[in-house]
Model the fold of this input.
Amino acid sequence: MATENVRPIIGVFDSGVGGLTVLRELLLEVPGADYLYFGDTARLPYGSKSAATVAKYACSAVRYLEQLGAEMVVIACNTACALAYPEIERCVNVPVMGVIRPGAESAAKASHTKKVVVIATEGTVGSHAYSTALSEWKVSAQEKACPLFVPLVEEGWTDHPITEQVAHVYLDELTRSGSSADVLLLGCTHYPLLKELLRRVVPPQMAIVDSAESTARSVAVKMQRLTASVTAPHIRFFATDSIEKFRRTGTKFLSREIGEVALVNMEP
Amino acid sequence: MATENVRPIIGVFDSGVGGLTVLRELLLEVPGADYLYFGDTARLPYGSKSAATVAKYACSAVRYLEQLGAEMVVIACNTACALAYPEIERCVNVPVMGVIRPGAESAAKASHTKKVVVIATEGTVGSHAYSTALSEWKVSAQEKACPLFVPLVEEGWTDHPITEQVAHVYLDELTRSGSSADVLLLGCTHYPLLKELLRRVVPPQMAIVDSAESTARSVAVKMQRLTASVTAPHIRFFATDSIEKFRRTGTKFLSREIGEVALVNMEP
Done:
């Protein structure tokens, strides 16, 4: 069991509050660590931006986490992992863990037909990062951008009939009528909030794999000695725009109250 | 009629491609000018950002247009006008025209009941900028944020049954069952693309006023000598992120092909 003076600090980075779904899973899987969470809310969303822009923004954020003492950085942002993982790894001296490899590995293990449907933002889908990762396990991927899911989640319509209709428009063709895919991989941090709704939309025999959970389990494997703790993790939050909005909207992603949030200015 | 050597240059600024609906109206109303259009696509959307962040971004963009020779700047971005108009006016030496006052004036003139429903982004609604402007004409405003309209337009669902349902969820309470409002004011540059759909959603006696059209007419009044021209306006486009995406998505907002787009880096 970890003692107070050896608690490592894990940095978690996302373009906004979505990565709090990854932090939520980390708090369950690795309660023996302390956490720094950085949401680049002034520059979100990354999903519609170019690889060069995403790399620049993500590197400045993870360097900030390293300077604050993070001994490992989890890139909770699927888009940043998809478009700029090698650049992010190069720009810091601490280990970096992304969400794509753990998500792809879990999906590959869950699939018997070796066919997976991946849903994500436009940027992630355009990069084919999940498809590339899944091919290592000889699994083929059908990737589908679902650009309305993030705004629907942010509107709070996580259980709304309109969201269910949108999900049918996006997914029916890929999951029904003769498709042999047996896993739906949630490749965006916002999508865990739609898991129950998606369960009703896709066929019952289709497994739903969440990259946030898979990532937390991978971090737990790396840090086995930290999976139990006598004291609660200490968490510090940083955002680049409105801290009130971060607290207000972040609560539903983290499933708990968010305390103090520090405002960070990333530009001169 | 303007001759070639006296054609003034009008700068048009928006957070993205939405302001091309304002440029489209300007090309109809003021064809005797040349245009510079700046879309701050790397930092969009402004609608969910704080006033301080929006002011900083908008000022850097309008200064850029001034340096390129703009003799007047039109702030096509409702959110920037709502949150940072005084700051933007102060940071350049050329006249600045926003979209909120012209939109409010047209709506006030169109309303017999002196009650207007304003739809806009969260940031614009939260600022109550339209409400403040309308109160000068003794018109009361009911303001409603419609955060899903922008992503629905960007998804291309401008005539989709799901978009029509979303519009009913947002608007029915405000426009039906005893409401005496007789004007719907479109307070976001993306909304003109939903005008036909909204026409079906709101009661037939309700007028729809579009800030983009109203703004172009206000610019035309200021520049009367330029409302006719023998040659087509010269237009240069600038964007802070993916120029391909700007061209692809911008076409439907401008209703014509977009030529060369220059990539601008606004950060060091």
Q: What stands out?
A: Chain B has eleven helices and ten strands. The two ends of chain B are 43 Å apart (CA to CA).
